[in-house]
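Q: I'm building a small set of examples for a reading group on sequence design. Run inverse folding on the following structure and report the sequence directly after it, with nothing in between.
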């Protein structure tokens, strides 16, 4: 765990340990010093007690001297006894005063106080009798005095011995303990310092030495010492160093691999142009093994002038770091010359020129091929049977091909810079901005006419962004001459007009007249049959004309009108009423299934939708066997209504289930057996349904009947108030 701490934390812990030991040492020393100080205080107190005992004994001696003098005077009847009495009172007063001081000094020492009190009691008893003359004159007074004085002195001696023993037992022991503690503290400090020094030398200096050795080992490409397990700064530095060494070794290996596997030749030249290093690509590119070129001069590869120029460049580079690119022809070992591109860098630190040499022979051939292909493409564009033009965002012409020149009858120089709007006008709206219309149409062509009416030129123009242009807003225009197509469309329009005005109305008039003749009861069956065939032929021609007119209207986008809400039930009912007689004639029944859709409304052009359903019902009646039924079913799918017309006919082959909705396509040539068709009905139905935003299709299996279906948008019902 200690190894996970950083160096500052480890040093802080070591200092705290040393500081704690110092504090412990100071605390113990302070304790011993306090104890020694207490011992010295006790010794001083004992000395004061000794001095006070001496003062008290001195006062007692004085009282004893006066007592002895009084005894002598009493025996000699000396007249000075009154003076001695005064001295005795003063001495007694002093003795009592010294005794009280001694008692105060002995406060807290009951044994010593008891001894002092016994001494005081002993002396006070003898001193109190000094006032009795009989005692003073008795022979035993002196003996009693000396006996009591001896007893008092013995008590004082015991007190002094007691204090002397106390002083002798504490003070030397305290001083000796302080000495031992001081010695232990010095040893502890020296030992702790040495231990910390050894610890840090071992943990820091030793590991730094390992780092230093790792640096030397890495420079000599020798294995490194094992990673340090500690997680402090030095351990992290060692980890980072190992990671760096591994990354540098990997980078060196990658660099060596890149150099060895590079298709370009990598080499290093000294200031005189001699090879110092050559990569292995020289073998495949130049035919020389790398060791064959080491020490050789660059002149072995380059022709004389190229070699001299390169060596002069190298010498001019010697004072600075310079990069240079140039091309030179290199002579291979087999004598073949190849074009090469040299990228060079002079390194002042290495005092050598680093060269990267790439074979550009293939690139030159590729450039020549690209130029040839570009020329072919330009010739192809010039020869295209459509016009190609590049215009700016403002419409001015940047370039055109020869076909545009031929269409407009002007030279290229006359057309460049002119606006495309000055040359063409939109056929739909002559006032519209032709460039804006081209951008809106996207990939759809825009029908335009040349402003020079005498040219009679009509074109379909398509615009795309010019990806090859530096200006991304430039447009590439594809201009197709459709003058002949326009003429054909005009002829078709005239033909349709001819059908509608000059053929349809006379046919209707003829049919009406023949129908009137059919009402003549005098006609025999033979004539009636011939008239009926004429009426059938007229109906067929009128139907063909009507469908052709519908196709024309579909192409012009005029067949379907505005979509309005209408009742699905009424639409289907109208279609059923229209084909009911035809179904009865063909002996076919029609079933109607609209479960849950009563009152459903749809968005539709009612008349055109009725036309679609009639067409699907007519086909179902036409191609169903007799005495079978045809079913009309409606289902709701989300916000759409799906209507299906199902028959029991021969079915539609899978490969024709999509193509039958194209114009002039029928399932088989035998379809005419049940009535002549044009192949336009389903195509018209498909266009009408898609104009309603729906889809139309068929589900069928051959011999199992068909189910033609279409989807219509359901109208939103208004909220009830």
């Amino acid at each position: 765990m200690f190894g996970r701490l950083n160096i500052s934390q480890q040093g802080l812990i070591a200092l705290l340990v040393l500081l704690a030991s110092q504090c412990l040492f100071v605390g113990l020393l302070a304790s011993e010093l306090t104890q020694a100080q207490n011992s010295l205080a006790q010794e001083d107190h004992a000395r004061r007690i000794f001095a006070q005992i001496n003062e008290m004994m001195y006062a007692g001696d004085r009282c004893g001297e006066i007592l002895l003098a009084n005894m002598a005077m009493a025996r000699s009847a000396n007249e000075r006894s009154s003076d001695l009495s005064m001295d005795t009172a003063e001495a007694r007063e002093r003795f009592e005063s010294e005794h009280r001081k001694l008692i105060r000094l002995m406060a807290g020492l009951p044994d010593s106080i008891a001894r002092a009190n016994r001494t005081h009691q002993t002396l006070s008893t003898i001193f109190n009798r000094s006032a009795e003359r009989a005692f003073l004159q008795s022979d035993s007074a002196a003996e009693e005095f000396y006996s009591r004085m001896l007893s008092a002195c013995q008590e004082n001696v015991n007190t002094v011995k007691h204090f002397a023993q106390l002083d002798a037992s504490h003070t030397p022991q305290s001083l000796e303990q302080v000495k031992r503690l001081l010695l232990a503290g010095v040893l502890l400090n020296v030992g702790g310092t040495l231990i910390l020094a050894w610890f840090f030398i071992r943990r820091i200096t030793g590991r730094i030495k390992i780092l230093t050795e790792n640096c030397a080992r890495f420079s000599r490409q020798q294995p490194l010492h094992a990673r340090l397990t500690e997680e402090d700064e030095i351990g992290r530095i060692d980890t980072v160093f190992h990671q760096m060494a591994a990354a540098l070794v990997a980078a060196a290996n990658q660099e060596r691999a890149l150099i060895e596997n590079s298709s370009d030749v990598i080499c290093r030249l000294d200031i005189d142009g001699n090879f110092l290093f050559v990569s292995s690509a020289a073998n495949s590119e130049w035919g020389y093994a790398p060791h064959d070129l080491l020490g050789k001069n660059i002149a072995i590869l380059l022709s004389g002038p190229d070699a001299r120029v390169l060596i002069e460049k190298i010498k001019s580079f010697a004072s600075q770091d310079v990069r240079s690119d140039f091309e030179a022809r290199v002579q291979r070992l087999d004598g073949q010359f190849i074009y090469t591109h040299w990228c060079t860098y002079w390194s002042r630190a290495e005092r050598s020129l680093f060269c990267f040499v790439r074979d550009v022979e293939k690139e030159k051939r590729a450039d020549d091929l690209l130029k040839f292909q570009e020329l072919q493409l330009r010739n192809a564009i010039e020869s295209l049977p459509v016009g190609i033009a590049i215009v700016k965002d403002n419409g001015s012409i940047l370039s055109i091909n020869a076909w545009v020149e031929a269409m407009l009858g002007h030279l290229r120089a006359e057309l460049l810079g002119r606006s495309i709007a000055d040359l063409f006008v939109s056929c739909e709206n002559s006032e519209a901005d032709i460039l804006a219309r081209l951008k809106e149409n996207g990939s759809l062509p825009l029908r335009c006419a040349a402003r020079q009416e005498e040219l009679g030129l009509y074109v379909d123009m398509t615009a795309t962004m010019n990806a090859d242009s530096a200006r991304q807003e430039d447009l590439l225009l594809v201009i197709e001459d459709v003058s002949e197509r326009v003429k054909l469309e005009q002829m078709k329009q005239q033909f349709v007009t001819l059908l509608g005005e000059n053929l349809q109305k006379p046919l209707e008039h003829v049919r009406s007249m023949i129908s009137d003749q059919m009402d003549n009861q005098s006609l025999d069956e033979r004539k009636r049959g011939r008239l009926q065939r004429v009426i059938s032929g007229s109906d067929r021609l009128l139907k063909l004309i009507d469908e052709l007119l519908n196709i024309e209207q579909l192409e012009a986008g005029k067949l379907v009108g505005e979509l309005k809400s209408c009742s699905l039930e009424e639409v289907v009912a109208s279609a059923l009423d229209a084909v009911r007689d035809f179904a009865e004639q063909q002996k076919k029944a029609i079933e109607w299934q609209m479960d849950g859709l009563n009152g459903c409304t749809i968005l539709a052009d009612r008349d055109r939708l009725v036309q679609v359903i009639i067409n699907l019902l007519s086909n179902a009646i036409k191609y169903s066997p007799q005495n079978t039924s045809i079913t009309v079913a409606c289902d709701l799918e989300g916000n759409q209504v799906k209507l299906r017309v199902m028959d029991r006919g021969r079915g539609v082959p899978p490969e024709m289930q999509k193509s039958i909705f194209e114009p002039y396509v029928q399932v088989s040539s035998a379809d005419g057996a049940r009535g002549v068709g044009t192949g336009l009905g389903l195509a018209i139905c498909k266009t009408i349904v898609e104009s309603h935003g729906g889809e139309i299709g068929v589900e069928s299996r051959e011999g199992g009947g068909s189910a033609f279906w279409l989807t219509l948008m359901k109208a939103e019902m208004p909220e009830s108030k």
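The longest strand covers residues 337-347.
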